[in-house]
Amino acid sequence: MYLFEGLRQQLTEYLPPEQVERTAAAYRLAAEAHKPQKRSSGEPYITHPVAVASLLADMRLDHETIMAALLHDVIEDTPFTQEDLAEQFGSTVAELVEGVSKLDKLQFNSKEELQTENYRKMIMAMVHDIRVILIKLADRTHNMRTIGHLRPDKRRRIARETLEIYAPLAHRLGIHDIKNELELLGFHALYPWRARLLESQVKMARGNRRELVERVQQEIEKRLHDVGIKARVLGREKHLYSIYQKMLHKELRFEQVMDIYAFRVIVDEVDTCYRVLGALHNLYKPIETRFKDYIAIPKSNGYQSLHTSLKGPYGIPVEVQIRTEEMNLMADRGVAAHWLYKTEDSSGTTAQVRARRWMQSLLELQQSTGNAFEFIENVKSELFPEEIYVFTPEGRIIELPQGATPVDFAYAVHTDIGNTCIGAKVNHKVHSLSKPLETGQTVEIKTAPGSRPNIAWLNFVVTGKARAKIRQYLKGQEFREAENLGERLLRAALGPVNFDEISAAEFTRVLHEVKLESKEQLLREIGLGNMMSIAIAKRLLGELAQLKDDGSASPVRSTLAIRGAEGLLMSFAKCCRPIPGDEIIAHVSPGKGLVVHRRECKNVRGFEDEPGRYFPVQWEANPDGEFITEVRVEVINHQGVLAKLTTAIAAAGCNIHGLKTEELDANIYYIDVALTVRDRTQLANVLRHIRKMPDVQRVWRLRK
Q1: Which pLDDT score, from 0 to 100, does residue 555 have?
Q2: Which residues form the ACT domain (predicted)?
């Protein structure tokens, strides 16, 4: 239990004794379960769950979360099951552990698919209970701290995943402590040289700037003291990874990024924030365009603060964030601050309410996207940290990611407004649908009832919701068009029979035969080319049923060899070469019409499962013409054997269409002969003639 003592002290500070004891019981089970296991570093495995639980205890999370953190690898790595945990610690803890457990049981075709599906499951688990993601983030933070013990390729993969998925998630949930640590550790693991170089540059720059930072800090403190405001003033260090990102994306030189001096002023009351703002604007000249009020309009992750940029001594830019103590805690801990797990939407801190609202939108996104790749691509765009705030004409605030366009705005207001959008006005002026919006603008969308989304919108929309809804509409549109086309084709195939007069019972019978759910689906399959209209028409008119029942009836003579294929493009399958007398079935092949196979052909095996693609046909009573079939002859190779074989075939009244030989042994050959025959009777006659030859071992009809 010595490993648990540090954690016990942390928990005793804020949890009642009986909850601490329940957590100790969870530790005992985890320690027992992981006893034989070691980490890559060689330490006992239990050190990892304890470190994860300790990170969460720092955030003052409830005892169920701490217990789940201690047990988070038990289901995956040990014989214990979710039921075992539920029995000992309750269903909530067991569900949290199951939510956090990695999804190794699933089978995937590729690494990317595995990752994508994992992310999707993780995000869906997080929608179910947000504590799952808090445990997952703490788990990832500790893994990143000990990443040095892994192979370089594995290290890079985990670091990239951390920077692309986990750090933005932590940001989106407002947990900046974890976000900053994940970014720093991820940066060092993915780009060790760049990180080291940048770190040494920052240290040098910091030394050169110390005097100026102290002067600005003293001037701010003196001004606030003079106007009677109690506040803490802190010089704020720029985060290493954010310096790198600014240099990379804004194409700034290191000197330009480091040229900005940042401070934080922390006070007790919200009102005081605005008094501080006034005092600072009197001290240094504000830079007009650089003021943001995130107190009145909090960021989507619940972050609140006043941001202002000023011209300090010697004209250097000074950035100041002004916030209350509570806002400061929120900025560092986000959703995890003042933890009180509540299920009602109206309760909890702003960050929790907003996080839950965001996760609800993820749930909607999951339902309307086609696959895991599309979903993750959309979630990634939802994780982008920068937001803009625009207004509806009624003054409602709509929050959108940076780069959002009027189309994104339209879909954010309502799906129907997005679908019927034809134009936009921004601040009462006409605005292009593809032009990005800016914070503070009032956007008015013009709609027209008959209009529909344009596929070109997918090139510029940035929100996952807009992209998913446009794709969903376009897919639906394809279906509707396929349905209309299918109906037109079926009407034409029915000829003189009126489509509208066919009874519902007939349709129900045919739907049952072809194993489809609805008439619309049947028309869609015809329109998409998966079924032939003429084949479905024959089914509706009962011709196929008639064909199945009375094989004996002698039909009217026609030039066709096949009954049931009238009016259809038809060919004979080369794989099995059917001839009159064979049991046959026709396969509906888009573009080739009907392809007739022998029933025993392996290429049409399982046709009972797909009745829409096959239908019964029969030979005419006395078909005209000759048909090609193939036989294989196994012979001992003597001089003149081929000549004897061709003579025997000619004697049976058949022509040779093609001939191939293949050596089987030293003097045994296979000879494959393609013959033209009238029917099975003539074929049997040929085979009899060939068998009589002295050098022939065996002869049989080929089935491929």
Answers
A1: 36
A2: 630-701
Lowest-pLDDT choice from 189-203, 425-439, 590-604: 590-604
Please state at what angle helix 464-494 crosses helix 372-383, rounded to 10 degrees. 150
Per DSSP, what are the bridge partners of residue 437?
none
Handedness of CA 222, 226, 229, 230 (dihedral sign): positive
* Other beta carbons less than 10 A from residue 102's beta carbon: 16
Write the DSSP assignment of 22-86 as a string of letters: HHHHHHHHHHHHTTT-B-TTSSBTTHHHHHHHHHHHHTT--HHHHHHHHTTTHHHHSS--HHHHH
**Residue the block writes with tokens 């004996």:** 552
> What local confidence, expressed as pLDDT, does residue 407 receive?
94
Does residue 247 carry a pLDDT above 70? yes
Tell me what pLDDT residue 345 has: 43
Report, as an integer, the average pLDDT of 452-466. Answer: 85
Question: Which of the following is catalytic: 76, 377, 626, 634?
Answer: 76
In a domain, 554, yes or no: no
> What does the pLDDT read at residue 549?
46
**CA–CA gap between residue 155 and residue 160 (Å, rounded):** 9
Residue 318 has phi, psi (to 5 degrees) of -120, 120
Catalytic site includes residue 76 = yes
Which of 494, 520, 539 terminates a domain? The answer is: 539
Axis crossing angle, helix 131-145 with helix 47-58, rounded to the nearest 10: 120
pLDDT tens-digit profile of 9-22? 888 888 889 999 99
Buried-exposed string 601-623: b where 16+ CB fall within 10 A, e elsewhere: beebeebeeeebbbbbbbbbeeb
Whole-model pTM: value is 0.55
- Out of 18, 58, 64, 77, the active site residue is 77
* 102 and 17 in a common domain: yes
pLDDT above 90 covers a percentage of the chain that reads 14
- Examine residue 76 and state whether it is found in any structural domain, yes or no: yes
* 77 counts as catalytic: yes
Number of domains the chain contains: 6
Domain residues for the domain of 275 are 204-331
